[in-house]
């Protein structure tokens, strides 16, 4: 028996009880309520409808899992790219510093009067190595604060990005200084 038939039978039975004089229930209120329910056109939910709804919910769950997995992979990719940028900047500026130091060492043995020209060119590379080291520390601190749930991590993250980009600017400045030093060397 579906819901509609049940309500129709219940209405009929209550009307029979009312006609026979039984007034122990508030039959008018009950009949009014049941007629409202009957007029609202209650539909039975079939097993197929329930399964369709379950499948839709499962699809939504799987879609959300996929989105979360994709977002996690993008996040990992960003972290890895940032780490590689820090490493490359450290290698670039550290290598330039070591090369200039080696050249200055050789120059000190052969032409000590020319050492000050190249020692000034070393400053941007040394500053850049310092900045990339600070960038690495800020990145760690930013990640720690992100995991703690504080909003300060955004500011530290932007400062780390700014410091990271500035190391490339310092490298260019250092290369220009080395170029000028070689121009004055001759």
How does this structure look, described?
There is one protein chain. This protein is mostly helical. The chain folds into two domains: 3-39, no CATH class; 86-185. It is built from five helices and no strands. The mean pLDDT is 87. The chain crosses the membrane at residues 90-109, 121-143, 155-176.
The total count of helices amounts to 5
- What is the β-strand count? 0
Helix content: over 70%
Mean pLDDT, as a whole number? Answer: 87
How can the largest sheet be summarized?
Answer: none
Strand % is under 5%
Tally the structural domains: 2
For this entry, give a set of tags.
mainly alpha; 2 domains; rod-shaped; membrane; transmembrane; transmembrane helix
Topology overview:
Blueprint: H1 3-19, H2 27-39, H3 47-110, H4 115-148, H5 152-185
Helix pairs in contact: 1-2, 3-4, 3-5, 4-5
Gist of the model:
The protein folds into two domains: 3-39, no CATH class; 86-185.
């Amino acid at each position: 028996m579906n819901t509609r038939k049940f309500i129709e039978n219940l209405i009929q039975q209550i009307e029979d009880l009312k006609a026979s004089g039984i007034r122990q229930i508030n039959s008018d209120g009950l009949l009014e309520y049941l007629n409202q329910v009957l007029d609202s056109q209650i539909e039975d939910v079939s097993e197929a409808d329930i399964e369709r709804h379950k499948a839709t919910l499962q699809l939504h769950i799987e879609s959300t899992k996929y989105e979360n997995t994709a977002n996690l992979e993008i996040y990992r990719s960003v972290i890895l790219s940032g780490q590689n940028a820090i490493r490359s900047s450290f290698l670039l500026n550290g290598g330039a510093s070591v090369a200039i130091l080696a050249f200055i060492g050789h120059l000190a043995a052969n032409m000590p009067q020319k050492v000050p020209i190249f020692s000034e060119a070393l400053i941007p590379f040394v500053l850049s190595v310092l900045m990339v080291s600070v960038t690495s520390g800020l990145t760690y601190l930013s990640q720690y604060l992100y995991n703690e749930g504080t909003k300060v991590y955004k500011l530290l993250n932007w400062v780390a990005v700014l410091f990271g980009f500035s190391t490339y600017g310092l490298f260019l400045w250092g290369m220009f200084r080395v170029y000028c030093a070689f121009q004055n060397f001759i």
